[in-house]
Amino acid sequence: MKHTLSYALYAFFLPLLPWLKRQAHHVRRDALRLPDAIGQAEPPSNGAPYFLHLGESTVTGVGVEHIHDGFTAQLAQQLQQRHQQSIAWQHYGITGITANGLLKKLSENDAALPALSEQPPALLIITLGVNDTTGMTSNRRWQTALEALVQRVANEQTHVVFTQIPPMHAFPALPSPLNWFLGLRAWQLDQQLRQACARHGWQYLAMTGALEPQWMAADGYHPNAQGYRRWAEDAAARLHWSPSSDSPVPSNTTNDRAAL
């Protein structure tokens, strides 16, 4: 009911469309564009279990200088401390990419993830949604792309995790009312993501704290090193996966909740 009623809120934004378009133009023109982080993960040894992180600019480490200060490497470090064993990781992200765009890139370039030719990841984490929000991806196209991505990369033994689409109304870089318009659409796509996770048995991982101003990079759009570290600490504590397990740990995929 709440999800259905959210679409009625677009009536409020209709008179504001010219203003929203101007704000979006100004944000695109004036936004500080930070580079991807430098560095790469070490490829996993043959046959060794590893976790793979796919997605958009937070996967490429925008907001920090080196990839080892980004979310993926920080999560690997947290998991190693928790489980007292080495954990190999890989990441593949493209700044500005949508879910369907990422699927197309992976389908066109088998060499993008050489580890996949050896074996699927034991843990797959997917972080997408900001660019699908700004691109106004339809609900159906969004869910279809998510399902196809998992089918492309995972197998039945892979523990699949989707991170929450961040509440974009809280992005310091977005002026009002554009932030509320995009925040609404992000929330709607996130509801679709929750439903997909519940339907397929994937784990949904809510974000907490990483969008506080002190944890944001200079662009007001991405976490800084402290933000990525706090996000990784929180994710590691709530991740229903153990590197020593032969199969995913059963989980309640919708127990993490974040309000708009």
Protein architecture, described:
- A five-stranded parallel β-sheet has the order 2-1-3-4-5, sandwiched between helices.
- It has helices at residues 2-6, 10-13, 17-30, 57-60, 71-83, 99-108, 130-134, 139-153, 178-200, 225-238; strands at 50-55, 88-93, 123-127, 159-163, 203-205.
- Helix 9 links the parallel strand 4 and strand 5 (203-205).
- The longest helix is centred in the C-terminal third of the chain and has 23 residues, at 178-200.
- The chain is globular and about 60 Å long.
- The model is unreliable at 246-260 (pLDDT under 50).
- Helices cover 41% and strands 10% of the residues.
- The protein is an alpha/beta fold and 260 residues long.
- Helix 5 crosses helix 10 (225-238), helix 6 (99-108) packs parallel to helix 8 (139-153) and helix 8 (139-153) packs across helix 9.
- The protein is built from ten helices and five strands.
Please tag this protein with its features.
5-stranded parallel beta sheet; alpha/beta; 5 strands; single chain; 260 residues
Helix tally? Answer: 10
Strand percentage: 5-15%
Strand order of the largest sheet: 2-1-3-4-5
What structural class do the secondary elements suggest? Answer: alpha/beta
Q: Whole-Å distance between the termini?
A: 15 Å
Order of helices and strands: HHHEHHEHEHHEHEH
Share of helix among residues?
40-55%
- The parts where pLDDT drops under 50 for at least 5 residues are 246-260
Report a brief summary of the structure.
The chain has 10 helices and 5 strands, in the order αααβααβαβααβαβα. It is α/β, with parallel strands linked by helices and 260 residues long. Strands 2-1-3-4-5 form a 5-stranded parallel β-sheet, sandwiched between helices.
